[in-house]
Amino acid sequence: MIFAPTGLGKTLFTMNLVAAISAGKDFLSWKASRKARVLYIDGEMPAETFKERITQVTDLFGEDIELVGINRDDEVTEDYDMPPLNTDEGFAWLKNKIETKKPDIIAFDSIMCLLAGDMKDEEIWEPVKKIMKWLTSQRIAQIWVHHTGHDAGRSYGTSTREWELDTVLKLERPQSGGEGFVLNFTKARLKKHNNAEEFIRIHCQLGPDGWTTAPAETEVDRKGGDRIENAGTIKTAYEALSHNTQPNVGHDGNSVIAVSMESIRAWAVNHGHATPKEDGKSIMSSTDRKSFDRAKKDLIQSGSYAADSKNIWKIR
Question: Which architecture does CATH list for 2-217?
Answer without folding.
Answer: 3-Layer(aba) Sandwich (3.40)
